[in-house]
Amino acid sequence: MSDDSAIPAAGGPDDERIKEIGGLRAWLIRPELGGIIGTVAVFVFFGILAGDSGMFNAQGIMNWSVISAQFMIIAVGACMLMVAGEFDLSVGSMIGFAGIMIAMFGVVLAWPMWLAILITFAICIGIGAINGLIVVRTGLPSFIVTLAFLFILRGFTIFIPQTVENRTIIGGIEEAAEGDWLASIFSADIMSWVFVWLADIGLVGTFSRGTREGQPVIDGIPMLIVWAIALVIIGHLVLTRTRFGNWIFAAGGDAQAARYVGVPVDRVKITMFMTTAFCSTVFALCQVFEFGSAAADRGILKEFEAIIAVVIGGALLTGGYGSVVGAALGALIFGVVQQGLFFADVESSLFRVFLGVILLFAVILNTYIRRIITGER
Amino acid sequence: MSETAFHHDAPIGDKPIVEMKNIEKHFGPVIALNGVSFDVKPGECHCLLGDNGAGKSTFIKTMSGVHKPTAGEILFEGRQMNFASPRDAMEAGIATVYQDLAMIPLMSVTRNFWMGREPKKGLFIDFDKANSTTMAEMKKMGINLRSPDQAVGTLSGGERQTVAIARAVYFGAKVLILDEPTSALGVRQTSNVLATVDKVRKNGIGVVFITHNVRHAMAVGDRFTVLNRGKTLGTATRGDITPEELQDLMAGGQEMAQLEGSLGGTV
Asked: Mean pLDDT throughout A164-189?
């Protein structure tokens, strides 16, 4: 055994038992693949079906971009949590809850809006931390723990405004947020000069009647879209480039193996639950400032839509593998299809059929990819 | 072997790095270990043999800080130690490579290699350094990787053990505990792992090699300790003991001798 030269080198390009991985297979194991193909497919599809319906003029693009950006915001949180090996089914209820909190503090109690926003963030992220703590302390599946919070939070979301105000929709948020510096981070439109210029050269239509005659029909880029892009970029960098990102993969890939090399798995998972809660709150804030009201039924089913976007984006339901960019593409597919069916004048209930079908395809594809990566048969 | 937190002093020579004295471990009414003594010196491979249920796992888990001994003392480089967690034992320089839990299959070799100690450049992981070091360390162990991005899942069982061993060595382990590293491997992969053990030992690291396979133990071991029913049956030095005697000790002598007779010495 002491003669090293007698030991054949295992693996490596010189090993006749290992086939070279072709370019196609190398591409196949990228998590974003499904998302990229899906994105191209839906654009081609609606380009043909609804190309002349106004879906791809400036207003149409803004329309589906806003919807996609909404999905993206919650998909980023859900993606990183799923890579860490957990789910959060309370995302939708958290959106409703955060909206009502803003209304309670900012309108009913008439506190300054920036204070209402900060307190709402603190409460919601705190609830995310409780979710995470229960999961890591009890070892229960996050599916059950967050399912409980789905009902608990929705119950409070209806109970609180019902008891205090005797109604479940609270308006007047726009007025209460008027001129507030922190609220504008969630509600403003930026770069309106671009659209004024685009209107001047005729690429964007202008109002032809009313008080805003002559102004472009698009005010600017909503902060919702800025938030979505920023969260996707930050999420992607954290997950793929940082030490903490490596720990997220490790916590979801094999928590015990990760603990053995000193990765603080519990801390990572709790942080990811808090991140998901943060994303839900951002979503809720953008929504209440856009609508000017908070309602107890907001956000229903959002948790599943977020999970589907993440799965389309190539993440494995079992954790340890996934991509924020993929999840963002999944969200884009969502937005384009949901609004595209409207532009193409197709019955909108078919959107759910599409969701179910594409979810099934994505999961089957992901299972196959997992086998390629791990060499299982 | 560069840039490690643990290389402060020169090899100690013949003094043991870790010395376990009369370790007892009780789980409620069950006495898993009943006074086990064991030590590892730098540059030696000390094999811990025993049949299933002999207490090998409990013993190495005590050594690596997972369990606290009920009685007995642990000396590390002559000082009494009281490990509160595996992390403590790791910081001291005791690295354990578990059979199944060594690696995360979905992650790349580089990400596995550096897990928990990723090199940073500013905010981000220094992937240039991480990748090149991983490739170089794996080459030293005789594994040519196709790419450092390769998922560990594509490696064979023996290669995965080798990555885990290379990782422990690179991060300055003074004692390397290998928990049944060869039990699930084929012949060729086993010889790869045994060759790796040999290289590690030559670097002055003390290796604790747990196995129930006498042939694997004889291939690399310098000393052999047999555990049976929670007790040590003694430590033998290489050359003083034959494989047959070791086999008998492991099985508790008498019955095995009879069984072996009826099987014609094939076990």
From this structure: 86
